[in-house]
Write a structure and sequence with these properties.
The chain is mainly alpha-helical. The chain has one domain. It has 3 helices and no strands.
């Protein structure tokens, strides 16, 4: 009896979709953080900076949540396939932690501005 190709399994397709979503939210978090830092040097309006902080907190939540889902899906896939994908697992941990860190920093800066 032959095993089906890994690309045909529902778990593999779900893993790839979640990986793409996590990559998108990670890039959105990095882009928003970069715009916020650039706005400090370019002297953006306070309302623009607060909007960027709100977007950063939303992107951070989505990045951390999609990262947790991706890590769980990847762990299940690695256990079922008996293959260790250490680089992807570490990258997912780092980017999920970065998203959570962006959320914490945005929340702290919003609290410091008095508009939390």
């Amino acid at each position: 009896m032959t095993r089906p190709h890994p690309a045909t399994s529902v778990l593999y397709r779900t893993l790839r979709i979640v990986e793409s979503a996590h990559l998108f939210f990670t890039l959105a978090t990095l882009l928003t953080a970069g715009l916020f830092v650039m706005g400090n040097y370019q002297e953006f309006l306070d309302s623009s900076q607060l909007l960027l902080l709100q977007l950063l907190s939303i992107a951070g939540v989505l990045c951390a949540a999609s990262g947790a889902w991706y890590i769980a899906s990847l762990a299940v896939w690695m256990i079922r396939r008996r293959r260790l994908m250490l680089l992807r697992f570490v990258a997912a941990l780092v980017t999920s932690t970065g998203g959570a860190l962006g959320l914490v920093v945005a929340g702290a800066l919003q609290a410091l501005s008095g508009l939390a």
